[in-house]
Amino acid sequence: MQPRVAVLLAAFNGKQWLKEQIDSILSQEGVMVSLYINVDQSSDGTEDFIDQLSKSESRIHTFTYGQHYGGAAANFYHLIKNINFNQYDHVALSDQDDIWLTKKLFTAIVSLNKCNADAYSSNITAFWPNGKKLFINKAQEQVKWDFLFEAAGPGCTYVLTKKFAINLQNFILINWGAVNRISLHDWLIYAYARANGYHWFIDPYSSLLYRQHANNQVGANVGLSAFLGRVKKVLNGWGLNQSLLIANAVGLGTSPFVSSWSKGNRLGYLSLTSHFWQCRRRLKDKFLFLMACISFVMLPPNNKQKEHLKVDA
């Protein structure tokens, strides 16, 4: 019997891309797919489009329309919270605007079984309207603390075993308030897995075409404008604030490593510089992380930045 996979898709104003994305999901080979779509209140007719599609396709399941989530993370938290995973073998996440290769899910499941892993992610190939394509490598070796400072890769590549998905669901239910303060669901899921000793496999295989357009909430981080946007988030304290929120949520807020830098002072940032090699996977990102920490040592956070770095215990 083919593996049964629940695919979770968070949609918002995605009518122009959804047909191509959904077709690529329902055309997956070697698996039995059930597609769950939750639509953030939209203005482009996304709800009507999904409603009509679900009437003619029994594999598509929808939720009550009209809710406003304000971002993909909150939408995915809602999906994970409200689906019965017991009837499936695996759970996968999907964006609304990509194109999956026909054996994306099957390849992930084979890799999970071969590596005896609990969760999977992969490389991607970004593509633009002008036909440009770019391979994005996320499969660098995992290091001790990378999960507190970055995701395993785009959430749209994630495939989870049933056991892990159910445990993740319970974690989200128990920590609902804390979880909803975390802006990137893929980062949180990876951190929860690594902090709790689950085996995560990052596949060098590129499993999908990752569409780039003006409305991407989180794109491929390619080019100068994307780089400057990331720098701004780091220097205004947003990145470390999210790291602390995640550390607290997954039970590492009082660990010696997190406690050494969580106070948001020069000494803490100096301590963090000594661990830079263990905080990011890609070589370039390791040194960018080091430079960011040094900048905080040299220029202590102003009042606005301190507000960013406040985290509830």
Q: Top keywords for this entry?
A:
single chain; alpha/beta; Spore Coat Polysaccharide Biosynthesis Protein SpsA, Chain A; nine-stranded mixed sheet; 13 helices; 42% helix
What can you see in these coordinates?
The chain is an alpha/beta fold and 313 residues long. The chain has two domains: 4-211, Spore Coat Polysaccharide Biosynthesis Protein SpsA, Chain A; 224-309, no CATH class. The protein is 42% helix and 17% strand. The chain contains 13 helices and nine strands. The chain has helices at 15-26, 46-56, 72-82, 104-115, 162-174, 176-179, 185-195, 224-235, 238-249, 256-259, 266-273, 283-298, 303-309, and strands spanning 4-11, 32-39, 60-62, 90-94, 99-100, 119-127, 133-136, 159-161, 200-211. Strands 1, 2, 3, 4, 5, 6, 7, 8 and 9 form a nine-stranded mixed sheet that branches. Helix 2 links the parallel strand 2 and strand 3. Helix 11 (266-273) runs antiparallel to helix 12. The protein is globular. The N and C termini lie far apart (47 Å). 41% of the residues are buried. Mean pLDDT is 91; it is low at 303-313.
